[in-house]
Amino acid sequence: MLHRITGRARKCGPAAVSAIAGVPTHEAAALIRRLSNRRAVRGVLMDELAAALFEFGHAPDRAIRHPRQGPDRLARNATVWDILFADVPFELRATTLGTFLDERPPGTWAIWASNHFVAWGDGLVADSGAWFDRSPAPWSRANPDYARVALRRIRIAVRFAPTSRQSQSSREC
User: Fold this and answer.
1) Which of 23, 73, 95, 152 has the fewest Cβ atoms within 10 Å of its own Cβ atom?
2) Contacts 24+ apart (CB under 8 A), 143-150
3) CA 173 to CA 21: how far, in whole Å?
4) Which residues, listed in sequence order, are joined to residue 117 by a DSSP beta bridge?
5) How many angstroms separate the CA atoms of 157 and 62, rounded?
6) Number of helical H runs and strand E runs in the chain
7) Which DSSP letter does residue 5 get?
8) Of 129, 118, 146, 150, whose CA–CA distance to 46 is shortest?
9) Backbone φ, ψ for residue 147 (5° rounding)
10) φ and ψ of 137, to 5 deg
11) What is the three-class DSSP state of 72?
12) CB within 8 Å of 148: residues ≥ 6 apart
């Protein structure tokens, strides 16, 4: 289930975390900054996004990766990648955003296409407002606004499932 993206941060990584975890984007950006020891979030890689979602109680359970995108090109920290994705089955497949979303994959996904994160869940899509709306909206290739991004190549798509793990920051909310 996707949530409406709220908060002050406008970048796509914190927006995807917001849509999946239901937290404001500025809280997601603060967590990403804390986890990655960076002063600002101007772009995230999949390991940073997955680590933030894990802290908010969502773990990766399946992934689809473009054959030419190895973990070294998808992660800033190889150790974090190895820990979070150790037991995650990867399917190697070259596909576009439109083709992937037309299949209506079950679950809640963070999709990285053309250096931009999109959240998908239950037939709804949302992002930072660059390609889609901040409120989850139904995906349809017939929508002229969506047709322009349907041909974007997916680098990696990761399905996240809720876990019983809760971080200190999510308990305080």
Assistant:
1) 73
2) 146/98, 147/98, 149/97, 149/98, 149/113, 150/96, 150/97, 150/98, 150/99, 150/101
3) 12
4) 112
5) 8
6) 8, 7
7) -
8) 118
9) -60, -30
10) -130, 150
11) helix
12) none
CB 152 within 8 A of CB 114: yes
Strands (DSSP E) found in 51-153: 58-65, 90-92, 108-113, 116-121, 124-126, 137-138
What confidence tens digit (pLDDT) does each residue in 82-94 have? Answer: 999 999 999 999 9
For residue 115, name the pLDDT band (cuts at 50, 70, 90). Answer: very high
> One-letter amino acid identity for 4?
R
> Which structure tokens are listed for 146?
């969506």
Rounded to 10 degrees, the C-alpha dihedral 12/16/22/23 comes to -40
* Tokens 């053309």 found at: 114
Structure tokens at 134: 């901040």
**The overall pTM is greater than 0.70:** yes
